[in-house]
């Protein structure tokens, strides 16, 4: 079974992957008009929708809170981050540049300086799938933290000793005969 510490390391890794993926080039949009030079926009995942990147920052920072919390509070933190990571996965899957023509049209209109609703060509990349998988893995890591055993068995106390662990001098201090074994 995966330990809580390993699950938190996995959560940080998943958040880092999502941050990396959303900083990459997701689409190249080109607008050409006769008599004018072509206008090309390079669109990252963060430009299309910043929600998964923001949730990835929450994943990374919340892992510190989860690691320092105990009991119910730890499970509550992990549950909230798990739900947020599932939301980020859903949003990542919705970020297909082909489905976001309104966003791309607004970005191109800002670049050209007038309203552009058609006439641009774009290319896609598979980054949204990697983002969704990383967010789903983060959700699984949070589930591991929530399902972790509630109590741990306490180890031996630092100051408790068995009578057999006493040295000869300690036995004499306690009034025992050290030669009786």
What string gives the helices and strands in order? HEEHHHHEHH
Counting structural domains, the number is: 1
Number of discrete helical segments: 7
Oligomer: single chain
Q: Biggest sheet: strands side by side, in what order? A: 2-1-3
Low-confidence runs: none
Label this structure with key terms.
56% helix; 3-stranded antiparallel sheet; mainly alpha; Butyryl-CoA Dehydrogenase, subunit A, domain 3; single chain
Account of the 3D structure:
This protein is mostly helical and 181 residues long. The chain has one domain (4-151): Up-down Bundle (Butyryl-CoA Dehydrogenase, subunit A, domain 3). 56% of the residues lie in helices and 9% in strands. It contains 7 helices and 3 strands, in the order αββααααβαα. It has helices at residues 4-22, 45-48, 51-68, 71-93, 101-112, 127-146, 168-173, and strands spanning 25-31, 39-44, 120-123. Strands 2-1-3 form a 3-stranded antiparallel β-sheet. A hairpin with a 7-residue loop joins strand 1 and strand 2 (39-44). Helix 1 (4-22) runs antiparallel to helix 6 and helix 4 (71-93) packs antiparallel against helix 6 (127-146). The longest helix is centred in the middle third of the chain and has 23 residues, at 71-93. The two termini are 44 Å apart. The model has no long low-confidence stretch (mean pLDDT 82).
Topology overview:
Elements (H helix, E strand, L loop, with lengths): L3 H19 L2 E7 L7 E6 H4 L2 H18 L2 H23 L7 H12 L7 E4 L3 H20 L21 H6 L8
Antiparallel strand pairs: 1-2, 1-3
């Amino acid at each position: 079974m995966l330990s809580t510490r390993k699950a938190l390391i996995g959560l940080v890794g998943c958040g880092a992957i999502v941050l990396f993926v959303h900083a990459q080039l997701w689409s190249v949009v080109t607008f050409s008009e006769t008599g004018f030079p072509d206008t090309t926009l390079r669109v990252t995942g963060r430009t299309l929708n910043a929600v998964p990147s923001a949730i990835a920052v929450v994943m990374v920072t919340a892992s510190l809170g989860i690691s320092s919390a105990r009991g119910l509070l730890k499970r509550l933190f992990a549950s909230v981050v798990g739900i947020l990571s599932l939301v980020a996965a859903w949003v990542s899957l919705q970020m297909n540049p082909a489905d976001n023509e309104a966003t791309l049209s607004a970005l191109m209109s800002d670049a050209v300086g007038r309203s552009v609703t058609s006439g641009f060509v774009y290319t896609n990349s598979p980054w949204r799938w990697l983002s969704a998988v990383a967010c789903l893995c983060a959700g699984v890591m949070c589930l591991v933290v929530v399902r972790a055993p509630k109590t741990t068995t306490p180890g031996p106390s630092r100051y408790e000793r068995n009578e057999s662990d006493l040295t000869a001098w300690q036995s004499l201090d306690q009034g025992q005969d050290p030669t009786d074994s």
